[in-house]
Fold:
Amino acid sequence: MRAMVSDSATGKEKETGHAAVSNVRGTWTAVAAWAVPGLGHLMLRRWTSAAAYFVCVGGLALAGLLMRGAVFGPSATDIFDRLGFFADLGAGAFYFLAHTFQSIAPDVAHASGDYGTRMFATAGILNLLTVLEAYEIGSGRRA
Amino acid sequence: MAAFAIVSNHFQAMLVFAVVVSVAFAVLTKRGFTEQAKYALWAFLAFLLVAVGIGWILYPFSQ
Structure:
């Protein structure tokens, strides 16, 4: 009986250990997926998904910037601007390099600039979805 | 560059948006190339249909 209890306790410890390792792996994958779109899936050897996410998120973000869309900063005071900031931040590297890609100032007075703002925000939200998927796969919750 | 050179009107901007989001949704939700391609096409057409439909409904209010 004692041996059985001991075995079961060891099994539980092993299970907890595996879960902790999986969570750490999932977290690192999610951080990588956020920092560079597709990198999390690349770490998980999901080559096609990684390429698709990089092209989709990167393409949408670049299109938004080239259409002179606005990128919200952290100092936004309005609630919608703040939401825009969190959406934009989701694009990871593309958010931090936005000013490198966008040589001309944003122009939201025209429709193309307004579309560009939405496209960049959509790129951020899409990337956040890929981050969630990368976390789930990395932590073993999804095949 | 005035704006994104390839995107010169509203419809083209919507096309770019619809293509990219459809492909991303397909890869996120489906497994296997055939399933993904089918879903991407379906989502793209749905985007187009809804956008043109809403545009058509709202057209009288823009006059």
